[in-house]
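Think of the structure tokens as a kind of shorthand, similar to the way a musician reads notation: each symbol stands for something richer, in this case the local conformation of the backbone. In the example below we present two proteins back to back. Begin with the first one, reading the sequence and then the tokens, and try to describe in your own words what changes along the chain.
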Amino acid sequence: MNQIEFQEKMNNMNPTNLLLYLYATAAHYPYKPAFISETSVFTFSELKSKTEIIGSFIADKNIYNEPVLIFMEKSPEEISALLGVICSGNYYVALDLEMTYTRLSHIIDITESKLMICDKYTEAKAESLGFKGKIYNYDEIITGEIDHEALLKIYQNCKDTDPVYLVFTSGSTGVPKGVMASHRNVVDYIEGLGEVLECDENTIFGNQAPLYLDASLKDIYTTLKYGATTYFIPKKLFMAPVKLIEYLNEHKINTICFVASALTIFTKLSAFEYAKPKYLRVIAFGGEVFPLSHLKQWMKACPKAKFINLYGATECTGMSSYYVVDNVERLENSIPIGKPLPDTEIFLIDEEGNPIVKLLPDTEISIIDKEGNPTVKQLADMEIFRQDKKDLATEEPLPDTKFSQIVDEGKTVEKSLQGEICIGGTGLALGYYKDVEKTKEKFVKNPLNDGMSKLIYKTGDIGYYGEDGEIYFAGRKDNQIKHRGYRIELEEIEACGNEISGVERGVCHYDNDKEVIIFFYEGSIEPDKVKEYFRNKLAGYMVPGKIVKLAKLPNMAGGKIDRKALAVLLHSPGRKPFILPNYAE
């Protein structure tokens, strides 16, 4: 089978196969640069060819619908390796090169992968990981041939529910959690996101996100769908924002999707006093809260750019909603999470799992008792009837329609009642890898559709409806935080710290104002030794920025560590008698 015959058959494949983006774009823009790093450039034609070679190589190993580990430097070559894994009918697991041996070992053990691809820069470390499968060098793989017949057979058997990647996030037990996403998940995500970002063949992305995070999907697959171009921004430039601006201008980058903390580097170091981005037209941010004070500085520096707040979770294929900031002065101290992407729904539930009704603008509220008489008192089983002028889901004008919600005795009726943010739709991931119980806990039946089997994901984020009818993020339900764009379970850091000889008890606190993780502990070991232990055991972004040794941790009546008291202690300069003279930063 030659390339032309193969392409003709591919054109009739399942439209939700993610690789069809690559095939369509390579046909339209074969010689256009797709991905560019400091050391290499791949056109779409070159990317397709290398993808098929790698796919053929893996297929020859008789591995199908299994995890394949990618241990490479971020580069166009790594992109072709990721796509090559999908091409072979398997799903990729991109590994963090800076991850500790302990965490890498966890992932290797959990996946039980049979094959790993490395490059010349990572080969030595890859061989030291104790991987029991086969390790292959990228440069050797791409000297092979393309087996079109084998690839076509794989494509014909591929289902849209087949996984394409497995990404690992922080876990509360100390073991990373794996989340799988399918062809359908990613395709539906990119179809909606591309419209939000206003992507086309003239889009030039500046990539910041590591390829082992789902945040990189925004750059990778929108580039493939639209025939755009992505530059991999050198990591070192994020420590020198003025030089980074010069880089953006030199390459005429017009679209960026950064974590909020990456954007605040520019403003904290006053970079806009020395240079300003000339070509940015879309600036998207997410992963954590972006302070309005920093956003205002960005909007002043780039007055013609479109600013978009993206919200979502790894369990929902990255991002699920967006909010275009048109007037920062109208916002209620923070940025709303915005509208859901197509085929996505977002709503709030209370502690009992009941949906919290959205209070829309132009809504009349009347409180009545069981007999239908108006009342201003809080009664048991009281109903709140809402006379709305808009539909809750579509916000389209409707004839007068009544909605009701039962309010339990003792609860107050507020405009901004808080609840857990829940997400449903086609972006919902396949679940946690080899963790059925955790999947059942977080992926639950949709309370809005009792008669249907569709699931939703409980994010653990707390939100509320503002007076403008938008959902605002209020914080975390548990001790999971978002720091430097990474989602981290504080319990994982605590578990690591409490293993240290000389630490009697330890607890983590996250200072949102200073964006720093703090580890408080009782014990005999010195803070600098604790810091050194963390550096050897945890990923760099998880290492506490401050280690504080206390004479005694505050306790609640039941004997548990009083986390709230630690927060008060931290923010009350006059109340620090428990802190010993030495601590480490």
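Once you have a description of the first chain, move to the second and do the same.
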Amino acid sequence: MLQGLTGWHLVIILFIILLLFGAPKLPGLARSLGQSMKILKKEVRNDEASDDSGEGSAEPVKSETGAAAPAVPAQTSAEDEVAKARAEAEAAKRELEELKAQQAAKAAERDES
């Protein structure tokens, strides 16, 4: 899939990203991407550690109250992060469309004057 990707392709892709999101939003996008990757790595490590320590025990762990702890898959938080990132991307797209509409309206007003 990425075998034919050369330096020029990367430059063009970065330029398109810059045009879509704008320079002021790129640090925020990179920060949120880094945080998402950090959370994903943390969850993978926790999942691997629980797999290593929990081999052979199929029973849920009981808390001090004696009730069984609910089994929550590690993917839930990763899926939440993905959903959150998609929602942020959709919000950014909507904001971009609104700004384009405002810019077009201002240009139309200038043309009428």
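Compare your description with these statements about the second chain. Residues 76-113 form one domain.
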